[in-house]
């Protein structure tokens, strides 16, 4: 009788039972690394998992509070932890500020949009020059110089007249006796001609170029309007920062410096309120400027614009306006970064914001009580 050969991975026909000495072996498990498509998917999943695990570990370490020496060392701070501190501080400012509309533009904008709106607002505002104005100080100094020159000139004229009157008799006596080749010479007193007085002349115009050329409030309003968007972005600040960190990872110093810039503008100087409609552009501009100010190398302009969701022209405008808004005080040292880091860790920003909220509430109550 012919024997039938069966493979190990095939099921047994009906009516046949395996012998005691025969064992059934299952097939080998698949190897995903052999498939290129599956390998790409696994790599992407591992990258996303590593980012999520690092964020979770940083949150747990910040909540639990570490007694390690690394927890108190600024140089051992990971970039993702600095990113979380930046996100928390910006979200806190947004929550406290609420929705503040930007400075309203002109009702009838001019045809020329190249800085002409600022010129129109400048013409409408009545500027009062104080006594400490440079032009008035210059005019006063010119008047004092002219008066002192006039007094000095009069004194010189009086001295010259006295000197000429004293030697007049001696010159007349010597004129009769002094002769050259039989010709007697007559000594005449020297007459000094006074220079024409300059008191009646108008002083030259003193042109001031700089602080008096444009009102500060007009310039400040035009700068802050650049950061506002028409509608509230659909993505939160935390998700926006994670997107920037995923495609354009930056160092710890850049994240802390950007947080320091925004904290200085919003809390200390109160130059601009941080709201849902301008927080994303403020963060993008702050990170871009901090990267250029502190790092030797930076990402290309086009890449940062694509990741940030703005055009290249808009990103350039945001950088320029952020520099003017910060007063070009962009270089920060280790001491400033450490103080700001300790402020964020200890909850000092929360206390500062609470103080601002209480002051705002007291101002509102004062306005309410002043009403009749």
TrEMBL record:
Residues 53-62 have a biased composition (Low complexity). It comes from the Eukaryota. One of its GO terms (molecular function) is protein kinase binding. InterPro entries: Cyclin_PHO80-like. Residues 163-174 have a biased composition (Polar residues). Residues 119-134 have a biased composition (Basic and acidic residues). Residues 1-37, 53-72, 99-174 are annotated as: Disordered. One of its GO terms (cellular component) is cyclin-dependent protein kinase holoenzyme complex. This is PHO85 cyclin-7. It comes from Escovopsis weberi. The lineage of its organism: Eukaryota, Fungi, Dikarya, Ascomycota, Pezizomycotina.
